[in-house]
């Protein structure tokens, strides 16, 4: 079973950097009430609902897995927030050109074909639209073997960690001007206690859910991948502007 099917069955998503990275990303995007924002890879809608509530923006969530998109939509309705979600492939978004003023993604493009996915993100953004991502980068030197081992373990088609310079080059090749690129100090920077506990609870549920679906003989392999995630990589935040 692939990683994305695991997420759909477990019904939860998490990402490197935790809530501290989310707050940093949204603050740098400078969301305004008149924005129409899209989250690419919205999962079960945690960031989506927070953005709609905290910044009063209208939001649209996109996720490849229908069950996750549905959970995110239910969350928006339950909290009476402006927005909806769709199940779709990020490389083939069901939106017209220049629809949104803001877009963001958290630990999504590491799984996607590049630069095709960046070009599609640029397509649906208005000129001067703002685009932000939190993605994995190398802590020090690249370790290509780690990417291949992780791709095989997760059962996904792609898993590609890039250097900060490579992420910036990908954004520029899609027509973005990069305004901000920051490597975070760790996978779990300090954050308010209630947010840290929420991150921990999400990771615990995710880990327990995945462990239940893995044969016992693969648990050691999974533990190795987690250790290497923290050993070799850190998240980074990028903010870019689509050319006018």
- CATH class, anyone? Alpha Beta
Strand sequence of the main sheet, in spatial order? Answer: 3-2-1-4-5-7-6
CATH topology: Rossmann fold
In the residues, how many domains can be counted?
Answer: 1
The low-confidence parts are none
The number of E-state strands comes to 7
Task: Write up this protein.
With 244 residues, the chain is of the alpha/beta class. It has one domain: 3-Layer(aba) Sandwich (Rossmann fold), CATH 3.40.50.150. It has nine helices and seven strands; from the N terminus they run ααβαβαββαβααβααβ. The protein has helices at 3-10, 18-29, 46-55, 66-78, 116-124, 144-154, 164-173, 193-213, 219-232, and strands spanning 36-40, 58-63, 83-87, 100-106, 125-138, 176-183, 233-242. α6 (144-154) packs antiparallel against α9 (219-232). 39% of the residues are buried.
Key features of this structure:
single chain; globular; alpha/beta; Rossmann fold
């Amino acid at each position: 079973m692939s990683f994305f099917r695991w997420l759909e069955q477990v019904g939860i998503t998490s990402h490197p950097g935790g809530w501290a990275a989310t707050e940093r990303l949204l603050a740098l995007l400078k969301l305004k009430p008149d924005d129409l924002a899209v989250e690419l890879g919205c999962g079960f809608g945690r960031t989506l609902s927070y953005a709609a509530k905290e910044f009063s923006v209208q939001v649209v969530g996109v996720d490849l897995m229908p069950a996750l998109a549905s959970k995110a939509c239910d969350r928006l309705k339950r909290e009476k927030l402006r927005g909806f979600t769709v199940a779709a492939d990020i490389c083939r978004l069901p939106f017209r050109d220049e629809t949104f003023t803001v877009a963001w993604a958290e630990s999504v493009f590491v799984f996607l074909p590049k630069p095709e996915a960046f070009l599609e993100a640029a397509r649906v953004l208005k000129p001067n639209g703002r685009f932000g991502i939190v993605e994995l980068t190398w802590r020090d030197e690249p370790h290509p073997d780690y990417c291949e081992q992780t791709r095989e373990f997760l059962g996904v088609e792609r898993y590609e960690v890039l250097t900060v310079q490579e992420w910036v080059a990908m954004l520029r090749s899609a027509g973005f001007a990069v305004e901000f690129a920051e490597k975070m100090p760790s996978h779990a920077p300090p954050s308010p206690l209630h947010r840290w506990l929420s991150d921990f609870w999400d990771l615990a549920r995710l880990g327990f859910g995945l462990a239940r679906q893995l044969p016992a003989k693969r648990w050691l392999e999974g533990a190795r991948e987690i250790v290497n995630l923290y050993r070799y990589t850190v998240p980074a935040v990028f903010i870019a502007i689509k050319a006018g």
